[in-house]
Amino acid sequence: MLGPLRRGPGDPTCRIAPDGAVWRASRTPEGPATLRVAPSGAEAWGPGADWMLGRLPALLGELDDPSTFVAHHRIVAEAARRAPGLRLTRTGLVMESLIPSVLEQKVTTDEAYRAWRLLVRKYGDEAPGPAPAGMFVMPTARTWSLIPSWEWHKAGVDDKRAATILRAVRVAPRLEQAASMTPESAAARLQLIPGIGPWTAAEVLQRALGAPDAVTTGDLHLPNIIGYALTGAHRTTDEEMLKLLSPYEGHRHRAARLILLTGRTPPRRHPKMPVANIAIL
């Protein structure tokens, strides 16, 4: 359920402990906080601890309503059967999802995860409480705005993505308000920022608002995964993916999430996206 919030195995804001507990370090409206969630219960530390605990039910899917979801494909029905308790998380924190999503634009996952890891470790704050070593809360909006251009470069972030983040953090309070909007209004507000398009907006809506219909378009891999799972096709466009998901209107993201959980992916038929390390250019 909380897996989509983790930006790679080295994410300094999220850890999965050997005992299965999930640790999250977040910057809440009331300040930094560390949250530990385990089957036995939840604990939180830091100025934002009460805020985190107050929103724990939403984080664990209490506000998600899958009651009207109907599986129209065998593979989706099987995935739903194997994950009967799956709910869509809702963090209520927009910038926490927006910045790493911008870092993931037009680059490989490994590049984006590396940039997020380096920048948060260097400019974030140590996670409060007894958090695992190496956990950090992401930087404040002001700190993001003061990161020198060469530090973005060293983290492998090109000028376009860095500029998008800088534009976003200047209006961070306005963007955070999107967490209490409808998905449609939230997407419209996010996309007022140059550099934030439908792909990035959907990635934020899925995590910050738990939007069940916010299907991601413009992704390099998702259409092919959906197409392969539902029809066996190896190449699928966004338009074809949306047509395949049309029976799930209102729950298209939920259907896509279930399909992703099956692990069914088409055989690779094209070279991997090249990694261009701008930090050494």
UniProtKB/TrEMBL annotation:
Q: Does the keyword DNA repair apply?
A: yes
Q: What's the domain of life for this entry?
A: Bacteria
GO BP: any one term: base-excision repair, AP site formation
What InterPro entries does the record tag this protein with?
Alkylbase_DNA_Glycosylase/TA, DNA_glycosylase, HhH-GPD_domain
The record places domain HhH-GPD at 103-265
Q: What is a single cellular component term in the Gene Ontology annotation?
A: protein-DNA complex
Instruction: List the Gene3D superfamilies.
Output: Hypothetical protein, domain 2
Reactions performed catalytically: Hydrolysis of alkylated DNA, releasing 3-methyladenine, 3-methylguanine, 7-methylguanine and 7-methyladenine
| SUPFAM superfamilies the record matches | DNA-glycosylase (SSF48150)
Which Enzyme Commission number(s) are listed?
Answer: 3.2.2.21
Protein name, UniProt field: DNA-3-methyladenine glycosylase II
Q: Which organism is it from?
A: Streptomyces beijiangensis
